[in-house]
């Protein structure tokens, strides 16, 4: 039996033994009573009764264990021309001091804190300081509009919000503070205080009595130590798009998370303590939580916080510059970032300017890695390019080529095999397990391994309905795909109304809620259509109210602005087509999936439940007129 098979088999047949062994890599304040608590299925909890502190494991233990002078964090910001390095000792100094600030503001174990910050070191410090005092952080991505922030404020009910005065998006200055003020105004829940980090870029105006200055607080703060928490206590909430306007608050606990992420660094990514690891993502996404902040620090690596893009900051050589300048061994980003480089520098001329000899492997995730991008990246870098599949909910990869265990030959289009701990199955609509090469719904047999979501924030019922009830005994991923005869998993895309735009997960249902409020729109549907650069882009189909005689371009602009103002620029909602009616089933369900296939020029079968087959013909005609209907349009 190969090394991978050995580990995978043990992880399924003796999950408790496997994860008890892995937990030895983490420092525990008190050992667990049970590795896996199975007393309340389908809710499973790892390391029940155990106590630890995630911040201690990510920072203090490395200072105590001989890494005090090793660089923990490199802040590389081409948009502000800054490079700043923090050793583990310096990081501990900042984090323990900011934890003191939190304590002085009455933030205690179990309190929620929202962090709405750009990619600056203070965001990482704030996250770790929350972990240090046992508070539950919820980071909100900066590309979301105030309304989205307000929804999260009302759901998480934070005692405190931490933010910054602004950021630079390539060349555009974004003021965060007015957006924060607007969100708090809209939200029903009001935080007691806001801590604002004033950047040199822009000065935020402060509200007396509510807003406090980060630097002033830090100057007089007293460092505090780590508060032990239960392994099963929440570390963070991360909101992610579901199929409705209300995002899902994915909960991550402390114990399982620390064990799984620590394990993943060596076994999946093949990274050792002391190595430089770079995830070019954003702290507002799960990749940022897991692989910019927690996993590299739990492992004693050097992590990079990059405030820039793959292109435009300043050019398509940005990634190669960072890799060579900071001696990155392993990098992680989204395929779309590589497609953006390929578009600007198709022959890869920029690579020649940098020494990438120390670079070992590129990991890609966030969306399907299309074979073209795979081949381009691989031919250019001549290093392993590894597609791996996961979700906000799982927090770490479900399928991957596990570089630290055993590498398999790469099959473009597949994210290789299930990672130990994830018992991946393909099901048909009735929940029957399908055989090799049969395409169906991707599910994972329970229990999920440590580090995956135990529930949704204060929404156990929604957790059950969304993930566990569709197929009892399994976690339903909402992705479709198949497994081949040799166990390679091919994930083909979402089977629900979630789309993936430039590696950003978005809900078409949420966009529909916005579009439908336009005064001239009687009915609408938003679907995700293929885009060569961003993977998918939203496309709105609207039926106008009787008598509404609208110029298409004006309507398009208005709807685009409405989505931008309500959800955020990151939604990239730009295209709308006006149709006479929407194709529906006899029970009134809009046939979004079929329309998506037509827009992408894919084969589709006439749904047996369709109310009026002529409606699909009408859609085809409209799409052809506006240029949809062929792959790559
Ligand atoms: N704050 C404010 N605005 C933001 C933002 C942020 N943090 N992030 C993105 N935006 C804005 C952008 O400025 C852009 O605005 P515009 O419509 O006025 O131009 C809009 O949201 C769309 O952004 P994006 O889709 O990111 O497009 P882009 O052209 O700016 O960049 C890529 C394209 C491919 C370089 C970029 O999307 C990328 O690097 N994606 C990878 C995403 C990722 O890391 N995902 C995590 C999984 S690994
Ligand atoms: P997010 O929660 O933002 O990480 O998005 C998760 C979704 O992105 C998954 O359900 C998939 O649809 C998609 N996804 C992420 N990584 C991959 C991948 N490597 N291959 C295919 N789809 C992916």
Structural overview:
With about 625 residues, the chain is α/β, with parallel strands linked by helices. It has 2 domains: about 400 residues, Rossmann fold, CATH 3.40.50.12780; about 130 residues, GMP Synthetase, Chain A, domain 3 (2-Layer Sandwich). About 30% of the residues lie in helices and about 25% in strands. It is built from 18 helices and 31 strands. It has a 7-stranded mixed sheet, sandwiched between helices. A hairpin with a 7-residue loop joins strand 14 and strand 15. It starts with a helix and ends in a 7-residue tail after the last helix. The protein binds coenzyme A and adenosine monophosphate (AMP). The site of adenosine monophosphate has 20 residues, from strand 25 and strand 26.
Protein traits:
Rossmann fold, 25% strand, 31 strands, seven-stranded mixed beta sheet, binds adenosine monophosphate, 18 helices, 2 domains, alpha/beta, five-stranded parallel beta sheet, single chain, GMP Synthetase, Chain A, domain 3, binds coenzyme A, globular, 633 residues
Short description:
The chain is an alpha/beta fold. 31% of the residues lie in helices and 25% in strands. Adenosine monophosphate binds at residues 240, 286, 365-369, 387-392, 415, 477, 479, 491, 494, 500, 505.
Can you tell me the CATH architecture of the largest domain?
3-Layer(aba) Sandwich
CATH homology-level superfamily of the largest domain:
ANL, N-terminal domain
CATH class of the largest domain: Alpha Beta
Low-confidence runs of at least 5 consecutive residues = none
* Termini separation: 46 Å
Number of strands: 31
Q: What class would the helix/strand composition place it in? A: alpha/beta
Helical amount among residues, as a percent range? Answer: 25-40%
Instruction: Give the radius of gyration.
Output: 24 Å
Q: Biggest sheet, strands in spatial order?
A: 5-4-17-16-18-19-20
In the CATH hierarchy, the third-tier topology of the largest domain is known as Rossmann fold
The percentage of residues in β strands lies in: 15-25%
Q: What is the typical, i.e. mean, pLDDT?
A: 96
**Biggest β-sheet strands, sense, barrel:** 7 strands, mixed
Number of helices: 18
What does the overall shape look like?
globular
- Small molecules bound: coenzyme A, adenosine monophosphate
């Amino acid at each position: 039996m190969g090394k991978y098979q050995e580990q995978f088999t043990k992880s399924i047949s003796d999950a408790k033994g496997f994860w008890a062994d892995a937990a030895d890599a983490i420092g525990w304040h008190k050992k667990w009573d049970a590795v896996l608590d199975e007393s309340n299925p389908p809710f499973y909890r790892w390391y029940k009764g155990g106590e630890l502190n995630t911040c201690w494991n990510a920072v203090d233990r490395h200072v105590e264990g001989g890494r005090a002078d090793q660089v923990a964090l490199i802040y590389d910001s081409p948009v502000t021309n800054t490079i700043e390095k923090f050793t583990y000792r310096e990081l501990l100094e900042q984090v323990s001091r900011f934890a003191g600030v939190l304590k002085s503001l009455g933030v205690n174990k179990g309190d929620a804190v929202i962090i709405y910050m750009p990619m600056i070191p203070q965001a990482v410090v704030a996250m770790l300081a929350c972990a240090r005092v046992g508070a539950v952080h919820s980071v909100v991505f900066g590309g979301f509009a105030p309304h989205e922030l307000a929804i999260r404020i009302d759901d998480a009910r934070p005692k405190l919000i931490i933010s910054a005065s602004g950021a630079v998006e390539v060349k555009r200055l974004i003021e965060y503070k007015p957006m924060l003020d607007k969100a708090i105004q809209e939200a029903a829940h009001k935080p007691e205080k806001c801590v604002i980090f004033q950047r040199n870029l822009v000065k935020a105006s402060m509200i007396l009595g509510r807003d406090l200055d980060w630097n002033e607080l830090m100057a007089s703060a007293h460092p505090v130590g780590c508060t032990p928490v239960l392994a099963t206590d929440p570390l963070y909430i991360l909101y992610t798009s579901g199929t409705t306007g209300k995002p899902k608050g994915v909960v991550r606990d402390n114990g399982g998370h620390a064990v799984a992420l620590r394990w993943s660094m060596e076994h999946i990514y093949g990274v050792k303590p002391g190595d430089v690891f770079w995830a070019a993502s954003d702290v507002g996404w799960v990749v940022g939580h897991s692989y910019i902040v927690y996993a590299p620090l739990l492992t004693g690596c050097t992590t990079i916080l990059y405030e820039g893009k793959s292109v435009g900051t300043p050019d398509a050589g940005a990634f190669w510059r960072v890799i060579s300048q900071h001696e990155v061994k392993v990098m992680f980003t989204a395929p779309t970032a590589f497609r953006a480089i390929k578009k600007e520098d198709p022959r890869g001329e920029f690579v020649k300017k940098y020494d990438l000899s120390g670079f070992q492997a590129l990991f890609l995730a966030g969306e399907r890695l299309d074979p073209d991008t795979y081949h381009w990246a691989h031919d250019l870098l001549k290093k392993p390019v590894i597609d791996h599949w996961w979700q906000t909910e799982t927090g770490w990869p479900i399928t991957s080529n596990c570089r630290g265990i055993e590498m398999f030959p790469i099959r473009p289009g597949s994210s290789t095999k299930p990672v130990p701990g994830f018992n991946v199955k393909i099901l048909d609509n009735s929940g029957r397990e399908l055989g090799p090469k049969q395409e169906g719904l991707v599910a994972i047999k329970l229990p999920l391994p440590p580090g995956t979501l135990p529930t949704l924030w204060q929404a156990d019922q929604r957790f059950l309905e969304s993930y566990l009830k569709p197929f009892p005994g399994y976690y339903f991923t909402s992705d479709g795909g198949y497994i081949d005869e040799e166990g390679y998993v091919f994930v083909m895309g979402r089977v629900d109304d979630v789309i993936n735009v430039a590696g950003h997960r978005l809900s078409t249902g949420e966009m529909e809620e916005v579009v439908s409020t336009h005064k001239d729109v009687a009915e609408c549907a938003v679907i995700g259509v293929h885009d060569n650069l961003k993977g998918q882009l939203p496309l709105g189909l609207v039926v106008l109210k009787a008598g509404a005689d609208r110029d298409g371009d004006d309507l398009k602009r208005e709807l685009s602005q409405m989505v931008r103002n309500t959800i955020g620029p990151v939604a990239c909602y730009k295209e709308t087509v006006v149709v006479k009616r929407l194709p529906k089933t006899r029970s009134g369900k809009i046939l979004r999936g079929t329309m998506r296939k037509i827009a992408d020029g894919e084969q589709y079968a006439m749904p047996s439940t369709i109310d009026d087959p002529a409606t699909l013909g009408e859609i085809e005609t409209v799409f052809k007129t506006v240029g949809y209907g062929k792959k790559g349009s």
